[in-house]
Amino acid sequence: MRINKRTDPRGRTLWPIPFYFFCLLVMWGIIFGGQKKVFASEEKNPLLDGGRSAVLYDSQNGTALSPISYTNLKGKDYTFHLSALDTNTGETVNEVEVYLHKEKMLYEKPEFIVISIVFALLAVAALVWFYTQKKTEVLLKKQVDNKLFETQMIRAFSKAIDVKDKYTNGHSARVAKYSQMIATQLGCSWEQIEHIHNIALLHDIGKIFIPDHILNKPEPLTDEEFEIMKQHTTYGSDILKEIKIFPDMALGAEYHHERLDGNGYPNEIKGKEIPFSVRIVAVADSFDAMNSDRPYRERMKMEDIVSELEKAAGTQLDGTVVRALLELIRAGKIK
Q1: 239 with 286: CB under 8 angstroms?
Q2: How far apart are CA 143 and CA 141, in angstroms?
Q3: Architecture of the structural domain at 162-330
Q4: For the chain, domain boundaries
Q5: I need a labelling partner for 303 at 20 to 30 A (CA). Which of 77, 169, 290, 313 fits?
Q6: Is 65 helix (H, G, I), strand (E, B) or coil?
Q7: pLDDT in tens, 103-131
C-alpha cells in the first residue's frame, strides 16, 4: 500500500490523517501484544468487504483477537502484508503482517459437498424411478388392454365359425381346451400354452368361406365337395396372415390337416416342417372330431378313439403329442 506524503512551508513532512490512525493501531499492538500484534474491532476491516465474521490471530503468540467482518473470502488461513512507503526515498516506513483465519461455512465443507452430491443423485434416481414406474404402469395397462382385446376378438371369430357350422358348434373352443391341456402336459411355458390356445381357437376360420350346403351337409361329402372343403385351410391362412404379430396363427389354419408322413393337405409337408404348436392342435382336432356327433355318424366310443389315436401316432399325428393326450384320457382329465 503506497501512501503519498505532503510538506508544510517549513519543509516538514505532513502525513495524511489515515496514516496517523494506522500508526496508532500499530503502536497499540506493540504496547499490548508485542511487535506485529494486529488490532481488530467489530467494525469492517478496511481491506475486506463487510458481512460475516472471521478471526484475527496475533502473529507472535497465536492468540485470537476480536472478530472482523467479511463476505468475499473462502474459509481458510490468510496472511496480509501492509506497509507504508516514503515516496521520496522509496524506503518502507512501517510494515505489519495480518493473519486471518476464516472458518469454513457449512456449504464449503467437503462433508457437505459429498452429502449434497449424494442427495442430488438420490433425488435424480427417485425422479427416474418415479417416471419409470409411471411409464411402466401405462405400458402394462396398455398391454393388458391389448391382450384383452386380442382375446375377445379371437373368441368372437371363433364363435362366428362355430355358428356357421351348426353340426360342429363349440368345436373350436373344445379343440382350444384340449390343446391347452396337452401343451400343459408336455411342460410348455405359460406363453406357449396361451399361444397354442389362440391358434386352436382360429384353426377353422377359413370355413367362413365354405358354402353352407357343403359345410352342413348331413351325408358324407363327394370328392368334389371334399376338394372345396379342403380349401378352408388356405382361406384361413390368407385371413390370418394379416396378423403379423402372430405368424403361427396363419400356420395353424393352413397346416392343421397336414400329416407327419407328408400325405396331408394343402402343402403335403411332413415331420418337423409342421410347427410343434400346430402338431398339438392337429391331435386335439382329430380327437374332438372322433369324440363328437357328426351329421353322417355318431360319436365314437372312447376305446375306439384311443385305438385310432395309437394307429395314427407316428404317421398321421405326432407320437409325443398323442402319448400326452392318452395320458390325460387315462387319468380321466379328458372324457
Answers
A1: no
A2: 5
A3: Orthogonal Bundle (1.10)
A4: 6-103, 106-142, 162-330
A5: 169
A6: strand
A7: 777 777 788 888 889 989 999 999 999 99
